[in-house]
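[INFO] parsing input record for Methylmalonyl Co-A mutase-associated GTPase MeaB
[DEBUG] input buffer:
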Amino acid sequence: MASAGETQAAELEGRFREGDIRALARALTLVESGHPLGQELLKRLRGQGRAKVVGVTGSPGAGKSTLTDRLIVEARQRGEKVGVLAVDPSSPFTGGAILGDRIRMMRHHQDPGVYIRSLASRGALGGLAGATVAALALLEAFGFDRIFVETVGVGQSEVDIARVADTTLLVLTPAAGDAVQAFKAGVMEIADLFAVNKFDLPGGDRIIQELKSALDLSPPRPGGWRPPIFPTVAATGEGVEALFEGLEAHHQHLLGHGLLEAHRLERARFEVESVIQEWGRKKTHKAGDLVARVARGELSPEEAARRLLRPEAQEGPA
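[DEBUG] output buffer:
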């Protein structure tokens, strides 16, 4: 006889497969909260669908949301069903997303072919949470053709996005120091395409030349891909069509060189690592005595970590 949980999972899965958008929203909430029912749904649905996953990152104020909004329009004009995951930094008080769904994208809320969801990074050391990858799996299973993952562009998220997305788009602006900061952060190495947004501001040509010079010194990318640079003005839509074609070109490059499967494996690896990291974070919050012993010099961090990972060893010698 099926348990109540199994019955709930089967009922929600049935509605999900029928294309009920409320079932998708419910499934995403369950997964993000770590509910066992969400994990059961993931096992049943994972691996279905093959969306083109585009990560959009860059410094705050670069116009990522406006640019993503324009890219949604381009995708819809080509008949693609589009999902958007907007990953916001978690509130330190509530754990919820601070920024909420990006206002600039809300004109799509009446379009059944577009679904936008904000996710909190939930303490993932400034980066993406494993829940982001789980949400991606659900959106793929729901049948979206293209999924944009937009990060706030601070901390670890800019590097994490390359492990999650098939194509990583780095958005820069002509603002002084934008390119220099990208070089220092190592983000140059993870970007598959560059958009110099707000190109109507002074300094656009200069930053493009800086990018080209840096790329000349960068190591070769898989399959010999050389990241193109696209000037854009997202506010008016200028250059967005060419940028979208660039995203397509990179996807075709991945297909042509058999690189997509490696991306999928790396995404799964990132998800498992994120779960382990979250477990560790929760355990250390409950292990005040062990942490205090590290602070007093009675235990090394490695010894404390081993005890947390193997609770049965806590009775043994330090």
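[INFO] DSSP finds twelve helices and seven strands in the chain.
[INFO] shutting down worker
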